Amino acid sequence: LAEGLATRGAIPVRVFPGTGFERVDERTFRLNPGSQADYQALLESVPQISGVVQCWPLDAVSTPSLEASDPAGCASTLYLVKALTTLIEPPPLWLVTRGAVGCPEPSSSLTCPPMLGLTQSPLWGLGQVIALEHPEVGCVRVDFDPHAELKDNVDALLQELMASDRREDHIAWRGGV
What we know:
By secondary structure, the chain is α/β, with parallel strands linked by helices. It has helices at 2-7, 36-45, 72-84, 122-133, 150-162, and strands at 14-17, 22-25, 28-31, 52-54, 93-98, 140-144, 170-172. The strands form 2 sheets. Strands 4-5-6-7 form a 4-stranded parallel β-sheet, sandwiched between helices.
């Protein structure tokens, strides 16, 4: 995703989970996902942000069960939103999941396949709350096709990120549609 953004003229900043706030290089950081202070330190280190794409939920275990649920996906997003809303003009927030939304393949009937990203689905509910309580963030939820190649999903996300009109805030890519 960072490479695709860079080829389109953006200057991506990558942030990875870690044990505390750390500047790895000019455009790479680590932070503790459970630390509000780390998110604030990140925003102070990167003063101009045109958008935030939260991809950490993609690291959650893919399973049609909630047994392996990782509540840190929602908790880290909550800390991120708290930090973003301290800014005078918060950048748009994109929450990215994979297989978290039950919807049929475009070529099939209305039968929904199993939701392989069920552990990520609570993030869609949190995204709805963010959209209602903090409309200034412009929270958009994008669900990747759980059966597509990573490159195809990234290309679809880049297409959404680069679209000039953001009328949709719930997007589920399935079968290239």
